[in-house]
Amino acid sequence: MGSVSSSNAKKLIKIDVSADTVCPWCFVGKKNLDKTIASSQDKYTFEWHPYMLNPSAPKEGVLKKEYYLNKFGPRAVQMEARMAEGKYFGQPQANFLILD
After folding, report:
1. For the whole model, what pTM was predicted?
2. How far apart are CA 31 and CA 82, in angstroms?
3. Residue span of the signal peptide, if any (predicted)?
4. How big is the CA angle at 56 (ends 55 and 59), to the nearest 5 degrees?
5. Distance between CA 12 and CA 32 in Å, rounded?
6. pLDDT tens column, 33-70
């Protein structure tokens, strides 16, 4: 039978992240990852990779308000209001989606 190590040594964990900066689910995932890391005693390194939800977006970027309104139509206003209330995943004031 194998033995189980009871070492308390910190592990170095490499995480590759593919994310889009305008994706609300990427934001939620990052917040949850931050909580996990904060409660861990291990060390982490990150390699960030872009994941483009809209690869045809201009390189100079677009205003989030306009992008969300174009993509989701009138629902964008409802989505923003619900996110601002913190109803998703217990996140307080998800300002990244405020469409003002």
Report:
1. 0.47
2. 18
3. none
4. 90
5. 19
6. 999 999 999 999 999 988 877 788 888 888 877 888 88
Looking at residue 100, its pLDDT comes to 38
**Which residue is it, tokens 């964008």?**
76
Check the CA dihedral 53-58-60-61 and report its sign: negative
Show the 3-state SS of the chain. CCCCCCCCCCCEEEEEEEECCCCHHHHHHHHHHHHHHHCCCCEEEEEEEECCCCCCCCCCCCCHHHHHHHHHCCHHHHHHHHHHCCCCCCCCCCHHHCCC
Residue carrying the six token digits 């996110």: 83
- For residues 18, 20, 23, 27, the Cα torsion angle rounded to the nearest 10 degrees is 60
Q: Can you tell me the distance from the alpha carbon of 81 to that of 66, in angstroms, rounded to the nearest whole number?
A: 16
Residue 97 φ/ψ region, left for φ over 0, alpha for ψ in the -120 to 50 degree band, beta for the rest? alpha
